[in-house]
Amino acid sequence: MRVVVCEDHALLREGLVRLLREAGHEVVATLSDARGLTDAAADADIAVLDVRMPPTFTNEGVLAALELRRERPCFPVLVLSQYVEERYATELIRQPGAGLGYLLKDRVADIDVFLDALERIHAGEHVLDEDVIAQLLARRTSDDRLAALSPREREVLGLMAQGRSNAEIAGQLFVSNGAVEKYSAQIFQKLDLSTDRAGNRRVQAVLTYLEVEARQP
Question: What span, in angstroms and rounded, lies between the C-alpha atoms of 122 and 98?
């Protein structure tokens, strides 16, 4: 896999480069700020970048990721953040197209978790940090779009938002794959995600879920 790394902290940037190369990936470019990301990504298969970067250290990474996705809608992007910043996570994940991720930098310390997330995002999955998911799940929602879902359907949708496959959801809930498929179909129907709607229904369901949860006080 060819990777472009965009991280202003020199030690973390070099650590990411070493980790990626030792895992057999090729680092085609390293950037200390978000300028030039789109050009650098032209020769890459995925981009890994920080949320907060020069000059303001606020949301430059997210803005760069969004710009890159506008240029190349299906280009895989993994954004790293020091803290849980739900606003930025939701803003990124709500964008159309597959292959997006948002992880805390602590996850990089767990090499297997980081590399697994990288592979899944490159394969087109959405991967959201479990701490962000935990905060969203802890909120109470009153949005009518989710009110029609049963507790079990909400649980299945929450696991979908964590990037779990049907088999993984079935294993965690101790149900069959067929049962998960049935719950998924009911979720899509209740959220009015018809088969002719643009985009993957699973992704659209997760985006609806994250949008609803992120709007809660």
Answer: 9
